Every structure is written in structure tokens, then in C-alpha cells.
TrEMBL record:
It comes from Bradyrhizobium betae. CDD domains: LuxR_C_like (cd06170). The keyword Transcription regulation applies. Keywords: DNA-binding, Transcription, Transcription regulation. GO terms for molecular function: DNA binding. The keyword DNA repair does not apply. One of its GO terms (biological process) is regulation of DNA-templated transcription. This is Transcriptional regulator. Residues 173-238 form the HTH luxR-type domain.
């Protein structure tokens, strides 16, 4: 295992024991700082009808004054990255892969310029969902990102665990989980070690369609939205041991 992945998995191992949001951000910085990641944010995509805008932020280490500017200018409604988080479950390059038209969306173009003025030139957004199925995101960014080749899955895993711990530290109610069947645990265990749907089907002598059905059932029982999140919850709660 290379150094980046090793340190990412060390973060996953210890994050559930961290006592506060600041410690979660410190741990992220310990893994990612040498790769140009200086700024971090875990937040819901939007506040609820009864929340103030800043209440949607679970944990952050962003440039001084940025959130005040963002809130005062009401950029929430012009942010292409948050908008894209509503339509994808895959990590994406911040702004570079979040589609917008600068000519037709001048407010969005202004937001992108202002963000870069604060030194957040590049980064990654990881869409996530809380156990209560409220959509959120984790942002990793900086002036010059140097993520090692092939390490986006490790960053994705860090985001899921960091967001989950931030939600729990905030006192969010937990969704009751139903017990997984033996077959569902087998499928998630194989998924956790990187096996594809077809590989799982071959190993268990079932069809790919049946594998997908077990994944969907596991997601429903665990309160997960994606396969990756289901694996994360199952490992965190020691339902499986990959």
C-alpha cells in the first residue's frame, strides 16, 4: 500500500475517536496538507427552512472572511458546485467539472472569481448523504492541488468518514438500522475490498442483478444512499470486517 492510501486509512481508523470538529479537520490536514490541500469544509447543501445559513456548515477550515462574504452576497443560490452535488454521487473537480455558463450566469462567474481571490483555486467536492438522507458535501481545496494518481477513491473514503463524524459530533439523530442478512454482509464485504459487481457475482455464484438487489437492500437497511456509503457504515459499525 502506498503512503497516501496508508495515511488515508489511518485517518479512517481514528476519526470515530476524535472529540470535536476541529480535531477532524486537523486529522484531514495531517494527511492532505503536503499535497496542497489547505482548506476543508463539511456541510449540508443548504440550510433547512428554520436554520440560519451558517447552520448548514458542520465543520470548516476556510479562509478568514470567506463564509461571511459568501453568506452576505447570497452566493448559495449561484454556486455551481453545490448545484452539481444534487445530480451526482461521484467526486468531482471543484468548478472545473461543475457545469455553468459564465455568459448566462454572471453571478456564478463572479462567485468563481471571488473564491479564487481567497486562494481556493483548485479542489475536489465529494457529495455525501447523512444517515437521515440529508444531502451534503465535503470540500478539499487549495491554491495548487497535487493529488497522487489513482488516489481519488482514498480521498472519497476520507470524505465519507469525516462527514459522518462531523454529523455525529453535531448531535444529529441516528436512523435505526435493520439487520443485514448473511448474503448482504457477504456482498458488502467483497465490495469493501474493491470487487466489482461482476466479480462479486462470480465469487458468490449469483447473478449481477442479484448482487445489485442485495446492495440496494443493504442501503435501505443502513440508511445509505450509495454503495460506497453502505460499505462505510457497515465497516464503521463493525457489521463487516473487510
Amino acid at each position: 500500500m502506498d503512503e497516501f492510501r496508508r495515511r488515508a486509512f489511518e485517518f479512517v481508523e481514528k476519526v470515530q475517536k476524535l472529540p470535536d470538529a476541529a480535531s477532524v479537520l486537523d486529522a484531514m490536514g495531517g494527511v492532505l496538507g503536503q499535497h496542497g490541500f489547505d482548506y476543508f469544509c463539511c456541510s449540508y447543501l443548504a440550510p433547512t427552512a428554520t436554520e440560519r445559513p451558517r447552520a448548514a456548515v458542520l465543520a470548516e477550515r476556510l479562509p478568514a472572511g470567506f463564509l461571511d462574504m459568501y453568506s452576505e452576497e447570497q452566493f448559495l443560490y449561484a454556486d455551481p458546485a453545490l448545484r452539481y452535488c444534487n445530480v451526482t454521487v461521484q467526486p468531482f473537480r471543484w468548478f472545473k467539472e461543475a457545469p455553468y455558463d459564465p455568459k448566462r450566469e454572471p453571478r456564478t462567474a463572479e462567485l468563481v472569481r471571488r473564491v479564487r481571490d481567497f486562494g481556493m483555486v483548485d479542489g475536489f467536492m465529494i457529495p455525501v448523504a447523512s444517515p437521515a438522507r440529508r444531502l451534503g458535501q465535503v470540500f478539499f481545496g487549495g491554491a495548487a492541488i497535487k493529488l497522487p494518481d489513482g488516489q481519488l477513491p482514498a480521498l472519497h473514503l476520507m470524505a465519507l468518514y469525516g462527514f459522518d463524524r462531523s454529523v455525529r459530533l453535531g448531535g444529529a439523530p441516528q436512523v435505526p438500522q435493520l439487520a443485514l442478512s448473511i448474503r448482504e454482509r457477504e456482498v458488502l464485504t467483497l465490495a469493501a475490498i474493491g470487487r466489482s459487481t461482476e466479480q462479486i457475482a462470480d465469487r458468490l455464484h449469483i447473478t449481477a442483478r442479484t448482487v445489485k438487489a442485495h446492495i440496494r437492500s443493504s442501503c435501505d437497511k443502513l440508511g445509505a444512499v450509495t454503495r460506497t456509503q453502505a460499505v462505510m457504515i457497515a465497516v464503521r459499525d463493525r457489521i463487516i470486517s473487510p
